[in-house]
Amino acid sequence: MLHSLDGETAMLVRTGALISGGEERAMRSALVAANLVVRPEWIEELLLQTYLFAGFPRALNATREWRRISGRAAPSDDPGTRYDVEGWTARGETTCAIVYGPSYERLRMNIRDLHPALDAWMIVEGYGKVLGRSQLDRFLGLTVGCIQQGMDPPARRDQYAADITYGTNNEFG
Fold first, then answer.
1. In this structure, are residues 49 and 139 in contact, taking their beta carbons and an 8 Å threshold?
2. Which of 74, 55, 64 is nearest to 125 (CA)?
3. Which of 4, 78, 82, 165 has an alpha carbon 20 to 30 Å from 130's alpha carbon atom?
4. Predicted pLDDT of residue 152
5. Distance CA 19, CA 16 (A)
6. Vertex 7, ends 71 and 10: CA angle to 5°?
7. Residue 2: pLDDT band with limits 50, 70, 90
8. Maximum Cα–Cα distance for the chain, whole Å?
9. pLDDT surpasses 70 at 142
10. For 145, which DSSP code?
11. Dihedral sign from CA coordinates of 162, 58, 66, 29
12. Could you tell me if 61 and 21 are in contact, meaning their C-beta atoms sit under 8 angstroms apart?
């Protein structure tokens, strides 16, 4: 059974989409609207997640606009400022293995074949440092699903019913 999003979460998703792919004016308008509806902690985490999904320049621009629109100062500290490459690597390997399941080793090999730095960045930056942050799930209380190769239709349906569903492009065909 699919669930509709509440207004606050829907506004957060809309804002994330416009930060990631919208024009600057649309992004500003979305942040103004979100400032009235969405908890500031959620927006802060969305802005940090933007770094991975839309790139550093968009994350910087959106965060600059958020500071201007909201009047909120940057937090004085964040767990992400403590450089723990070993911890990020371990968390990244675990998270990536959960998402890709039986395809995990093949994925790692394929990415290393493209370039070893991309493999390291995927694990440390992507799955360890950014996707491994617990703040967004904790703030939103979202359910997370994962579509994996070879799942039977009932299991796949259950995963699609989650608020956020991970998978590879091949699995969403």
1. no
2. 55
3. 4
4. 78
5. 5
6. 85
7. very low
8. 49
9. no
10. E
11. negative
12. no
Question: How far apart (Å, rounded) are the C-alpha atoms in residues 48 and 89?
Answer: 19
Q: Is the pLDDT of residue 139 over 90?
A: no
Q: For residue 21, what are the contacts with CB-CB under 8 A and spacing of at least 6?
A: 54
Write the pLDDT tens digit of every residue in 6-51. 889 889 989 999 999 899 999 999 999 999 999 999 999 899 888 8
Q: Tokens 């703030």 appear where?
A: 139
Q: How far is the C-alpha of 2 from the C-alpha of 132, rounded, in Å?
A: 25
Q: Give, for 23, the enclosing helix (H) or strand (E).
A: none
Could you tell me which of 124, 118, 121 has the C-alpha nearest to residue 93? 124
Give per-residue pLDDT as tens, 65-105. 999 999 999 988 877 677 788 988 998 998 888 888 888 99
Paired strand residues for 152: none
CA distance 15 to 12: 5
Which tokens belong to 19? 């930060």
Cα-based distances in Å from 72 to 40, 60, 64 = 9, 15, 11
